[in-house]
From TrEMBL:
This is Substrate-binding domain-containing protein. Residues 6-46 form the HTH lacI-type domain. InterPro entries: HTH_LacI, Lambda_DNA-bd_dom_sf, Peripla_BP_I, SBP_2_dom. It comes from the Bacteria. The keyword Nucleotide-binding does not apply. Keywords: DNA-binding, Transcription, Transcription regulation. Transmembrane segments: none annotated. The keyword Protein biosynthesis does not apply. Pfam families: LacI, Peripla_BP_4.
Length: 356
């Protein structure tokens, strides 16, 4: 107690004598409870004032590294930059390294360059690959904290994971689809599940959650998995169209990894209207598809809250604020055209969603 503050400063702040402060700090008797509380409060006030003074002009340089389609990388970057004014007086400078088709080795090379140049922290969305995990460990040894976003990387020295509870999100999608599809007496129906790539741990967790729930509660629904479109429209379109042509029994779509505009185009070309079509994230494409009632629902998590949490973690790790933040995966929110968050707006008139 009182570390870093002189007895004179504490006494002046509390309005008591030096002897009283000395008794409180050393736990001696002879001080009234109300006086002791005043001394403790004075110490806390001095600590806050010292911290606020030290923060003036503090600057952090952080790196945002993402392997993702541009529509999602842009949404994350915008959400991150929107939080920066809230962090003042600490000024954070963001250096972005974004790529739609970046290879695992290229991501590891980007991390290596950041490590050699120096950084106050890295926010990373990347595939689960040994070279990337090794580079995260190297960053940790260089005292550069790495926070994984959206998709986690385990068995490495990352500081924390910030993002969606992916397994629960997959289960939520299965719950919705099981509720919308016909009862078990209607056999022969299937669900198309589209992932961007098996390289991403988060997508694997969503898939496992989805598969586990349907196996338990709707085993009559078959699943067709389709992947490696990388969430890019031009790669996803042909894959989905081929699946629809060869599997006329598909009656529902769960898009785990994006490329939903391409999926919608394939459905239209094949003249297919699924009973339910679920996607992830409120990016510009999904908002438009919700407006047109092509997407039934979007499983959304608040990117602004995620980015604020990630920034707070980096500030604490760089010892500019006391450690207070508790990190937990965020739950999925079920968004339809009828309950859009306040920052979104759709112009299409409302229609009944589930056919009678």
């Amino acid at each position: 107690m009182g570390e870093g503050h002189s007895l004179k400063d504490i006494a002046r702040q509390a309005g008591v004598g030096l002897a009283t402060v000395d008794r409180v700090i050393h736990g001696r008797s002879g001080v009234r409870a109300s006086t002791k509380r005043r001394v403790v409060q004075a110490i806390e006030e001095l600590s806050r004032q010292t911290l606020e003074t030290s923060l003036q002009g503090s600057r952090l340089s952080i790196d945002l590294v993402m392997a993702a389609p541009d529509r999602f990388s842009s949404a994350v970057r915008n959400a991150l930059e929107a939080q920066l004014p809230q962090l003042m007086p600490i000024a954070m400078r963001v250096r972005a390294h974004l790529g739609e088709t970046t290879t695992d080795e290229e991501i590891a090379a980007i991390l290596a360059r950041i490590r050699k140049r120096g950084s106050n922290g890295i926010l990373l969305k990347a595939p689960d690959h040994l070279a990337i995990r090794d580079e995260i460990d190297a960053c940790a040894r260089a005292r550069i904290p790495v926070i994984t976003l959206v998709t986690d990387l385990q068995e490495c020295s990352r500081l924390a994971y910030v993002g969606l509870d992916n397994h629960a999100a997959g289960q939520t999608a299965a719950w919705l689809i099981a509720g919308w599809m016909p009862p078990p007496t209607c056999t022969g129906l299937s669900v198309l599940v589209v992932i961007s790539s098996a390289r991403f741990k988060g997508e694997e967790e969503r898939e496992l959650g989805f598969r586990d729930y349907l196996a338990r509660y709707a085993p009559h629904l078959r699943i067709h998995f389709l992947g490696e479109g990388n969430g890019l429209d031009w790669q996803t379109l042909g894959l989905v169209e081929h699946a629809l042509v060869n599997h006329p029994e598909i009656e529902a779509v769960y898009s785990i990894g994006g490329g939903n505009r391409a999926i919608a185009t394939a459905l239209n070309r094949c003249k297919r209207v699924p009973r339910i079509f679920i996607g992830h994230d409120l990016d510009r494409d999904n908002l438009s598809l919700l407006a047109d009632r092509v997407l039934t629902a979007v499983l959304h998590h608040d990117l602004n809250a995620d980015m604020l949490l990630a920034c707070q973690l980096l500030i604490e790790t760089n010892r500019l604020r006391p450690t207070r933040v508790e990190v937990r995966p965020s739950p999925a929110q079920i968004i339809t055209p009828l309950n859009l968050p306040g920052f979104c707006a759709l112009s299409s008139p409302g229609r009944a969603q589930k056919p009678e």
